Amino acid sequence: MLVQLAEMGSIPVMDTGGDLNFPNTHLLDVTGTDAVTRSDVIVLLDVEKLEQTFTVSNRYTREKNSRLQPGCKVVNIGLFDQWIKSTTLDFDRLWPVEYTIAADTSLAIPRLTEELRRILESEPQQKKTLEERFNRTKGLHDATRGRWKQQLERDGNREDISLATLSQEVWNCVKGERWIVTGNIGGFTRGLWDLDRPGSVMGGQKAAGLGTALSRSIGASLAVRKDGGFCVAFIGDGESLYVPSSIWTAVHHHIPLLVLLLDNGGYVGEGAHVTWASESRNRSTANQHIATEIQNPRVDFAALARAQGAYAEGPIEKRSDLRPAMERAFQVMKKESTLALVDVRLKGREQQA
Ligand SMILES: Cc1ncc(C[n+]2csc(CCOP(=O)(O)OP(=O)(O)O)c2C)c(N)n1
Ligand SMILES: [Mg+2]
Questions:
Q1: How far is the CA of 139 from the centre of ligand 2 (A)?
Q2: Which of 18, 190, 194, 339 is the most buried (most CB within 10 A)?
Q3: Is this model's pTM higher than 0.70 or not?
Q4: Is the CB of 267 under 6 A from ligand 1?
């Protein structure tokens, strides 16, 4: 539906990181570009957090700057406004919009498409403008996809495992299957995979609550199991330790799930924040490791999974070991309909998000 609307008006489309509604392979997909900064009209369809979408914020100083150019008109279509109440943590600061239209977007999009068709039929001179916009958008799309590929190529000589190479290796293994992916590993699944099947991405987590990743992935796998599907989950080492017993649940119920355990030795995002905060206040960083590192000993995640009857590989540190280990895990997961985990040691303190 959204593809039809976009193609009708040569409209660039941006995904804000929820469930997949527009293929990343489509030439009108401009996710991850600065298209929003140059728009004069923006239509939001089921976008929940306007401030997050429209501002660049500095993680540390908390300073926020609007990405919209002056005079840009925003039309908000969806139902999220209906549940706004009491706490701004749920929805950010209220963002000024031109119109708010309460609607089920599955009904609104066909209506918009029809209306657009009617207008374009009566204004054939618009054709050239649409063509020009299509070409500009295609250029933006290709350049962005190209940058993700370049990053992958740059990591090509590394002996250790980067997020780009991990993402690509997993893709090589599962493409053509009925997967549903969760965890965006620094944007590389969006950047390198072909996400073109509705329902193939399980999007963002509310409140960023740790402990949800494993259990949500098991739920997703359960939902697609009857169609021969399975979930591919990229999960942080810290995150996975919140509810490790959910591994047992997946094994017990024969739920197929491929877990790529992003083992960077701790709460690396948190650790970086502690370091930054200490440095900016002229304090020592000597205690930065406390409550952020999970080391001495490192956790043997493969053993943790095996202890609960799951199949496991790892820790894998070398890139050359990754593909065979993943192939083995993948085969067992499919054949035995169970959870298979690959513990991937990330050097260079790579972060999950
Ligand atoms: C229930 C809960 N407790 C604590 C936090 C704070 N928190 C955010 S990220 C994080 C560490 C995550 O570590 P990991 O999954 O290893 O990811 P990494 O930063 O290493 O990529 C913590 C503790 C949270 N979001 N939710
Ligand atoms: Mg970690």
A1: 36
A2: 339
A3: yes
A4: yes
